[in-house]
């Protein structure tokens, strides 16, 4: 009887240990892929769920899509190292690379281009023809101070052309399209955006973009990118990179790319983002070299 009891206890112990080990393996098999809140959460989830499902099938491990409702929550996860894969803008990347050890491995190709640039836009009938004409004028930037093109890149254009903070009235719109809408509706004299914004369907449907002109364009910078957590297995990174790059090679893959709002994923290296570091240093005086 006593021997039977001991046997039962041993079996129960082994069962508990087995369960704990199983949970540990499962936890390791989940790869968290976070997307920065460039768009509303529901839209982001719809756009990137096909990519998460595809990667899960290609690498043999579950890729869990993480969608944050606001930037504070998203960036908190980056700081804590909660994400294995992160999609964000160029400024977010160089900051996270230096401060938290994330490494770029893929970048977007959008509308067939692997580069993007900022722009200052005005109405064609505004009478504003040079950057110096913006002295004392209201400039609305599309997004907050961490917006790479709409704020950092746009401000860099102003600095490069001789305007400094205080020479103009700084204002912010909730996103880049709203900045263009404000200029079109004469609520601001000029707008800071990524030049690509003028081609977006959401903008073309709302306003006559032919009434808007690009006053000045910024330098070309590498497109938005994807980083991986410090210490992630190099073989796993290579598998994920290969799977993402191969999407452009077949019809099903191109459908996933279209859903994610890109035309391709391309390999990327940290060195490519040195021009971003320079622009950030000149505008924000933050050093990410």
Strand order of the largest sheet: 2-1-3-12-4-13
Gyration radius (Cα, Å) is 23 Å
Total DSSP E strands:
13
Biggest pleated-sheet summary? 6 strands, mixed
Helix content: 40-55%
CATH fold-level assignment of the largest domain: D-Maltodextrin-Binding Protein, domain 2
CATH architecture of the largest domain: 3-Layer(aba) Sandwich
Order of helices and strands: HEHEHEHEEEEHEHEHEEEHHEH
What does this structure look like?
By secondary structure, this protein is an alpha/beta fold. The protein has two domains: 14-113 and 223-284, D-Maltodextrin-Binding Protein, domain 2 (3-Layer(aba) Sandwich); 118-218, D-Maltodextrin-Binding Protein, domain 2 (3-Layer(aba) Sandwich). The protein is 44% helix and 21% strand. It contains ten helices and 13 strands. It has helices at 2-29, 41-59, 71-80, 90-100, 148-160, 176-184, 201-206, 234-245, 251-259, 274-284; strands at residues 30-35, 62-67, 85-88, 103-109, 115-116, 118-123, 138-142, 169-173, 190-194, 212-217, 221-222, 225-228, 264-267. The chain has a six-stranded mixed beta sheet with strand order 2-1-3-12-4-13, with helices on both faces. The chain has a five-stranded mixed beta sheet with strand order 8-7-9-6-10. It has a two-stranded antiparallel ribbon with strand order 5-11. α2 (41-59) crosses α8, α2 (41-59) packs antiparallel against α9 and α5 crosses α10. It is globular and about 60 Å long. Mean pLDDT is 91; it is low at 4-27.
Summarize the topology.
Blueprint: H1 2-29, E1 30-35, H2 41-59, E2 62-67, H3 71-80, E3 85-88, H4 90-100, E4 103-109, E5 115-116, E6 118-123, E7 138-142, H5 148-160, E8 169-173, H6 176-184, E9 190-194, H7 201-206, E10 212-217, E11 221-222, E12 225-228, H8 234-245, H9 251-259, E13 264-267, H10 274-284
Parallel strand pairs: 1-2, 1-3, 7-8, 7-9
Antiparallel strand pairs: 3-12, 4-12, 4-13, 5-11, 6-9, 6-10
Helix pairs in contact: 2-8, 2-9, 5-10
């Amino acid at each position: 009887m006593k021997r039977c009891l001991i046997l039962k206890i041993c079996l129960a112990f082994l069962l508990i240990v087995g369960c704990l080990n199983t949970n540990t393996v499962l936890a390791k098999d989940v790869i968290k892929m976070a997307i920065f809140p460039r768009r509303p959460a529901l839209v982001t989830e719809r756009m990137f769920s096909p990519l998460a499902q595809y990667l899960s099938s290609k690498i043999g491990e579950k890729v869990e899509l993480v969608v944050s409702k606001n930037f504070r929550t998203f960036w908190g996860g980056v700081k804590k190292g909660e994400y294995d894969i992160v999609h964000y803008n160029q400024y977010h990347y160089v900051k996270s690379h230096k401060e938290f050890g994330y490494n770029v491995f893929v970048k977007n190709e959008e509308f067939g281009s692997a580069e993007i640039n900022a722009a200052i836009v005005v109405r064609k009938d505004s009478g504003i023809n040079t950057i110096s004409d913006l002295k004392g004028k209201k400039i609305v930037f599309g997004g907050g101070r961490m917006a790479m093109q709409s704020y950092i890149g746009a401000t860099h254009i102003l600095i490069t052309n001789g305007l400094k903070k205080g020479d103009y009235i700084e204002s912010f719109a909730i996103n880049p399209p709203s900045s263009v809408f404000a200029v079109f509706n004469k609520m601001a004299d000029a707008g800071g955006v990524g030049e690509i914004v003028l081609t977006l369907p959401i903008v073309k449907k709302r306003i006559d973009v032919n009434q808007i002109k690009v006053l000045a364009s910024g330098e070309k910078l590498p497109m938005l990118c994807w980083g991986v957590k410090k210490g992630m297995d190099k073989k796993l990174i290579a598998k994920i990179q290969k799977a993402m790059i191969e999407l452009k090679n077949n019809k099903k893959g191109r459908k996933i790319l279209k859903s994610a709002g890109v035309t391709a994923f391309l390999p990327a290296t940290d060195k490519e983002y040195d021009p971003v570091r320079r622009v950030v240093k000149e505008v924000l005086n933050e050093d990410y070299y």
